Amino acid sequence: MQPIAESELIINARGAIYHLDLRPEELAPTVITVGDPHRVKEVSKHFDRIEVQREHREFITHTGYIGAKRLSVVSTGIGPDNIDIVFNELDALVNIDFGTRLIRPELSSLQIVRMGTSGSLQAHIPVDSFVASTHALGLDNLLNYYRLEQNMEENALLQSFNTHTGLNTQVTNPYISGAAPSLLKHFVAEFHQGITVTCPGFYGPQGRVLRLGIRNPALIDRLTEFRYGNHFISNFEMETSAIYGLGRLLGHQCLSLSAIVANRVARTFSKDGNALVERMIEHSLGILSTLPG
Ligand code: R1P
Ligand code: URA
Which portions of this protein are annotated as coiled-coil regions (predicted)? Predict the structure, then answer.
């Protein structure tokens, strides 16, 4: 095996990975990702103690403990392109030896949980509720740059989705991946479950019209009414397909949790999104801190 070149695996003078500015020992085996850098302290204020605080660009990391459980919380910023950076760098921190620049013979699997905001696509999932994503369906294209293999059921679901929405002939090549069952099973009470659709934008790609016309005005209706067996689309956001797709390829256990701030069917928005996110963080940390890993 050849060492990975300096241009591909970029390590700074502190011995830390390029964008996250983290050294391997500064990352915990359980990682919470949040889009908003200001949300990092809203998570770490629940830690019993914080031992590492790093910041570079939009990537803020706090690592600490709740009881005996070591956790890191990392801000990703918005969108799948940022997830490409964060996930490749998180994986490098645990699975590449920075000294030799070689992939470790024994690979480690991180537990990674997104805590983000989202828009509901169903009338029965109101603002101020929570969603745990069983699957993520990507309209963003990131995983089309990797070799994500779809299984037979995934291919059948995608075919049905493409026939129903026509998005594959208009804008993208949709892909799908699932949550880690070992994490999802703990987020049933208090959480709606469904397929999350991940978009490469907040406005046009999520069917929002301000001043610009959009190519697919029926997008919301098509997504809301889509059914495949018992599966339906619960919500829209901007990271989960990249998290589930890269997590699957890299061998990490991933789950995406969303606080519903908008309902696109009822056309409503939460009156207090911060309090809602705070409730989701507190509740989810209570569950996570009891899990092994
Ligand atoms: C858009 O407002 C952002 O909010 C959602 C979307 O995925 C996107 O990142 O998540 P966060 O609240 O975690 O940023
Ligand atoms: N985040 C999104 O991406 N969409 C919404 O509607 C709300 C939050």
Answer: none
The reply to whether 244 falls in a domain is yes
Could you tell me the residue range of the domain that residue 121 belongs to?
24-288
For tokens 């403990």, the residue is 65
CA pair distance 119, 234, nearest whole angstrom: 9
Residue nearest to atom 8 of ligand 2 (CA): 118
Q: How many domains does the chain have?
A: 1
Q: How many CB atoms lie within 10 A of CB 144?
A: 14
Check if 98 has its Cβ closer than 6 Å to any atom of ligand 2. no
Give the residue among 187, 221, 220, 192 at the shortest CA–CA distance from 125. 192
Q: Per residue in 226-263, pLDDT tens? A: 999 999 999 999 999 999 999 999 999 999 999 999 99
Q: Whose CA is nearest to atom 5 of ligand 2?
A: 119
Ligand nearest to the Cα of 114, by number: 1
Residue 100 maps to a domain: yes
**How many angstroms does the Cα of residue 236 sit away from the middle of ligand 2?**
6
Quick check: CB of 265 below 6 Å from ligand 2?
no
Tens-digit pLDDT profile for residues 186-216: 999 999 999 999 999 999 999 999 999 999 9
- The pair of three-digit structure tokens given for residue 53, joined into one six-digit string: 């605080």
ipTM of predicted complex:
0.99
- Does the Cβ of 117 fall within 6 Å of ligand 1? yes
Query: Is residue 270 within 8 Å of 143, Cβ to Cβ?
Result: no
| CATH code for position 111 | 3.40.50.1580
Does 5 reside within a domain? Answer: no
Asked, for residue 19, whether it belongs to a domain, the answer is: no
